[in-house]
Write a structure and sequence with these properties.
The termini are far apart. Strand 3 (87-101) and strand 4 form a beta hairpin. This protein has 5 helices and 15 strands. The chain has helices at residues 2-15, 32-38, 170-179, 195-200, 283-287; strands at 43-54, 57-73, 87-101, 104-115, 122-131, 134-142, 146-152, 160-164, 168-169, 187-192, 208-217, 220-227, 232-239, 246-253, 260-271. The relative contact order is 0.15. The protein is mostly beta strands. Helices cover 14% and strands 48% of the residues. A 15-stranded mixed β-sheet has the order 8-7-6-5-4-3-2-1-15-14-13-12-11-10-9. The protein has one domain (21-287).
Length: 293
């Protein structure tokens, strides 16, 4: 009887298809083309024309994606001033949005750090949101487990410390697109939505079921992420050829498709932006099509 029960258990486990929950992919050595593009001492800055859906109305603004490689302390998980035996090279994304809702402005910034040539690339992610009602800040650190700290002005969200088993996050997939898009997960998975979406919609910080698909449209690929329970669909359009620049993205409310956020690329430049902080160097913003303050 015990042998029969064990056999049935093994058959059940063999037939079941668990959803992917761990953020790992097959690593390949960095190509010379990758090194030439990403290790040239500059950052890739792309500007986007933004239509942000907020409070059920479209808001005009701008978005910027800044991708850059840098040396990163593995223990403290902060940028290193110089490379040494205790640092690793990461690809960092700073994703910003700026738009107005009536009289008051929104400023949103997310930073995602992923290690290169690692099967589990995500190491850290942060998001901050500022507007005249208040501000929020979330930070994820990935070591043996995922630790998330959340601070918020809003009731029910303030000062949370959460620990989760390793899992896959929406924010890190923006990095997979730029490094190994063919390794993007497809099918049904559990996914932590972007911190931006979670906080703008005052949702619990947790993994949600998602359906993902990578399709090819000529010279462009589109990665779709659908959250059925959240009635949300994110579609990221990117060039099918290296270095896989992101051309546009949309966030659709599946209950009301008219409430769709869209970002369309204006310009991409390679610049050492951290040096361009002198009076007169604002003209680089003009080159990116960004309005002056």
């Amino acid at each position: 009887m015990k042998k029969s029960s064990l056999l049935l258990t093994l058959v059940f486990l063999g037939c079941s298809q668990p959803k992917k929950t761990v953020s790992t992919f097959k690593t390949e050595p960095l190509t010379q083309g990758f090194k030439s593009y990403w290790f040239d001492g500059t950052a890739e800055i792309s500007s986007y024309r933004l239509t942000q859906s907020r409070y059920k109305e479209p808001r005009q603004g701008s978005a910027v994606l800044i991708y850059v490689t840098e040396d990163f302390w593995t223990d403290a998980q902060v940028k290193a001033n110089q490379k040494n035996e205790n640092t690793q090279t990461v690809l960092k994304l700073n994703r910003t949005k700026n738009f107005l809702t009536g009289i008051y402005p929104y400023s949103i910034m997310s930073s995602i750090f992923t290690r290169l040539e690692q099967p589990a690339p995500l190491v850290k992610a942060t998001t901050s949101i500022q507007e005249w009602c208040g501000q929020t800040y979330l930070q994820l650190n990935r070591k043996e487990k995922i630790q998330i700290k959340s601070h918020s002005y809003f009731e029910g969200e303030a000062d949370q410390n959460l620990t989760f088993k390793n899992g896959l996050t929406e924010d890190e997939l923006w990095m997979w697109i730029r490094t190994q898009p063919n390794e993007l997960p497809q099918g049904k998975i559990d996914l932590l939505p972007s911190f931006e979406f979670i906080r703008l919609n005052h949702l619990p910080i947790q993994w949600y079921p998602a359906e993902t698909e990578l399709i090819e449209q000529g010279p462009v690929k589109v990665y779709h992420i659908t959250f059925p329970t959240l009635q949300r669909k994110l579609s990221i359009h990117f060039d099918a050829a290296p270095p896989y620049p992101i051309l546009e993205w949309t966030e659709a409310d599946l209950q009301n498709p008219t409430l769709t956020t869209r970002a369309q690329r204006i310009k991409t430049l390679k610049l050492p932006y951290w040096r361009l902080n002198n009076l007169g160097e604002e003209h680089y913003r003009d080159s990116l099509g960004l309005k002056p303050f």
